[in-house]
Amino acid sequence: MNPIRGYLQLIRLPNLFTAAADVLAGTAVAAAAGSGGDEAALLGLVLSSLCLYAGGVALNDWVDRNRDARESPHRPIPSGAVSARAALRLALFLLAVGTMAAGAAALVLSSPTTAITAACLIASILFYNLAAKNRFFGPAVMGLCRCLNWLFAMSPAAAVWTPWHWALPVGMGIYITGISWFARQETAVSSRFYPALGWSHWVVGIAVFGVFGMAYENVAVDRWRWAALLGLITLWLTVRTLWAIQDPQPRRVQLVVTQAILAVVVLDAAAVFVVAGPVRAIPVLALILPAGWLGRWLYST
User: Fold this and answer.
1) What residue spans define the domains of the chain?
2) Which residues contact 217 (CB under 8 A, 6 or more apart)?
3) What are 209-230's pLDDT values in tens digits?
4) Of the candidates 126, 116, 109, which has an alpha carbon nearest to the alpha carbon of residue 152?
5) Closest CA to 98 of 77, 75, 76, 124
6) CA 212 from chain center: how many Å?
């Protein structure tokens, strides 16, 4: 692995498009609620989310460097493409830039909620990597990070949130928790228990996510279209899960995990679809194209 590819792999470049999709979807929901920011605020929110995500996964590889040397020697640090010291420096730099971008967005928006949510997100990223990741509650903390990323994007509309708005970040958090459980043993022949547990979280997470479109008053499309779209996503994930459980080899499990990560973009686009219609949803959905293309050369898990 050459150094450039090593660094791109370290930050999970394909996955960054899912973090951007979260922010674009969250800000679209905020705008539909009547409280949006200007372009500078949106840029700050997107930049912060990207840097915090990239810094978090780089820190993850630094924390796991000894285990990866045994189980995944192809990863950037054990392969020698990126030194452990350089990976740590990059992680800290990205987390710092993400923190500053979040602070700038909070100032532009004059939103204490944005600043508080960003602080909680940063704390959760650090807690996951430094304390929780190898514990039984690690997947839930990872889900919390994604939930907070959505809340961070929605924060401009905090004053007008309804109870139904919470279904989106909470549902996405449960869904990401499922991805973490599904990938729990991805480097070896997986126990069928973990993919099944991950799938159950996906179903529950999508169902909670769907509550928003079924209960929120100001939807832009027929509710049956929203329900049908989420039903198709659930069916597709179920078929892929059964394929992985049939023969839970690392390659199959990792492939399904990658596809589930890409489905985050589809769910985010669905959220935009229900509040703003298909035209606004298309740019968000289009993020799946570079994510999928880059995923041919850079792994996502």
Assistant:
1) 3-294
2) none
3) 999 999 888 888 888 999 999 9
4) 116
5) 124
6) 19
Question: Beta-carbon neighbour count of residue 126 at 10 Å?
Answer: 15
How many other C-beta atoms lie within 10 A of the C-beta of residue 247? 11
pLDDT at 129: 96
List the alpha helices (DSSP H) in the chain: 3-10, 13-32, 39-63, 65-71, 76-79, 84-109, 112-127, 138-154, 167-182, 193-215, 223-246, 250-276, 278-285, 288-294
**Contacts of residue 156, Cβ cutoff 8 Å, sequence gap at least 6:** 27, 30, 35, 36, 37, 41, 109, 111, 114
| Cα angle: 152, vertex 50, 276; to 5 degrees | 55
Two tokens, residue 275: 């509040």
Q: What is the CA radius of gyration of the chain?
A: 18
Whether 176 has a pLDDT exceeding 70, the answer reads yes
Which residue type occupies 176? I
Distance CA 202, CA 178 (A): 6
Q: What are phi and psi of 10, to 5 degrees?
A: -60, -40
Tokens 């509040």, residue?
275
Determine the 3-state secondary structure of 213 from DSSP.
Answer: helix
Q: How far apart are alpha carbons 252 and 116 in whole angstroms?
A: 39
The tens digit of pLDDT for each residue in 88-140 reads: 999 999 999 999 999 999 999 888 999 999 999 999 999 999 999 889 999 99
All residues at 6 or more sequence positions from 209 whose CB lies less than 8 Å from its CB, including other chains: 167, 168, 171, 172, 175, 230, 267, 271
pLDDT(267) > 90: yes
For the domain with range 3-294, which CATH number is right: 1.10.8.870, 1.10.287.3510, 3.40.718.10, 1.10.357.140?
Answer: 1.10.357.140
